[in-house]
Amino acid sequence: MRNCWKWGKIRVWGLTSPSPSPTNRNSSEMGAKAKKALKKKLKKTSSSQLSISRSRNESSDFLPLEGGPGMKITQEEDEPIKNMATVLYIGHIPHGFYEEQMEGFFKQFGKIKRLRIARNRKTGKSKHYGFLEFENPEVAKVVADEIHNYLLFEHNLQIHLIPPERVHPKLWRGVNWRYKPLNWTEIARKQHNKDRTVEEQQQMIRGIQKRDKKRRNRIKAAGIDYECPDLIGLVQPAAKKIKFDEEDDE
User: Fold this and answer.
1) What distance in Å separates the CA atoms of residue 120 and residue 128, rounded to the nearest whole number?
2) 132 phi and psi, to 5 degrees?
3) What pLDDT was estimated at residue 37?
4) pLDDT at residue 14, as a whole number
5) Residues pairing with 4 in the sheet
6) Distance CA 160, CA 162 (A)
7) Which residue blocks in the chain are alpha helix, DSSP H?
8) For residues 9 and 248, what is the distance between their CA atoms, to the nearest angstrom?
9) Given the DSSP bridges, would you call strands 112-119 and 126-134 parallel, antiparallel or unpaired?
């Protein structure tokens, strides 16, 4: 059986919990109002910040018509970075295309500041790569773009710009050095005909005999029946002692 009673102005049917007191109701209403006020303040502050940022962007794009403290128009971000590289790497250099030929070929594009081909320190032969520096960076860029993969004596030249921060401080060391080839024939002749002492002569003969013995053993191991001729001049006669009579001396 359902019971009905009145409590304040609320009619409740059945077994239900009593309604909240007036004090609790007022506190909940005050909390909801405070939350709504905070949300409105946050919206106002965000909208004001957006309007300020928009006005700043507009003021940076336009100057004031009447004199006033206008903001400077910055174009640094839009402008491309200027090319300051003047040094070129040149690879796949063919044989015969050396300093003089390279300078005569590349000076048609602009003034050359420095030129260097990597060479072997002992033989002086080219290592088939080098470096070239122009005075004007625009000329260097044109050469890198147009002469890259240029066919020269069946070699495709490989040309690349080197940024200034990657240029080694010792890159141009010995740029004006020219290799003077050694006359190895003259050096060998002097080494062979030099004056030797008796010990050096005997050491040379022992070396010749040792190499001759190895050669004979290889021929015998191969099953070849061959008698190698004896070396001439290896056996030197012993020094003779000359005795003088005392009568001849007198």
Assistant:
1) 10
2) -135, 135
3) 72
4) 44
5) 13
6) 6
7) 22-61, 99-106, 137-146, 184-192, 198-221, 246-249
8) 172
9) antiparallel
Token pair in block for residue 161: 């710009």
Structural tokens at position 145:
């773009």
Per residue in 147-163, pLDDT tens?
Answer: 999 999 889 999 999 99
Q: Which two tokens stand for residue 169?
A: 């401080």
Model confidence pLDDT, tens digit, residues 126-145: 899 999 999 999 999 999 99
pTM for this entry: 0.45
DSSP characters over 188-241: HHHHHSS---HHHHHHHHHHHHHHHHHHHHHHHHTT----PPPPTTSSPPPPPP
How many helical (H) and strand (E) elements, i.e. helices and strands, does the chain have? 6, 8
CA distances from 105 to 110, 111, 134, 221 (A): 10, 12, 13, 60
Q: Which residue has the higher pLDDT, 77 or 38?
A: 38
Tell me the β-bridge partners of 134: 112
- Taking the C-alpha atoms of residue 92 and residue 152, their distance in angstroms, rounded to an integer, is 9
CB atoms within 10 A of CB 121: 6
Q: Mean pLDDT across the stretch 184-212?
A: 90
- β-sheet bridge partners, residue 131: 89, 116
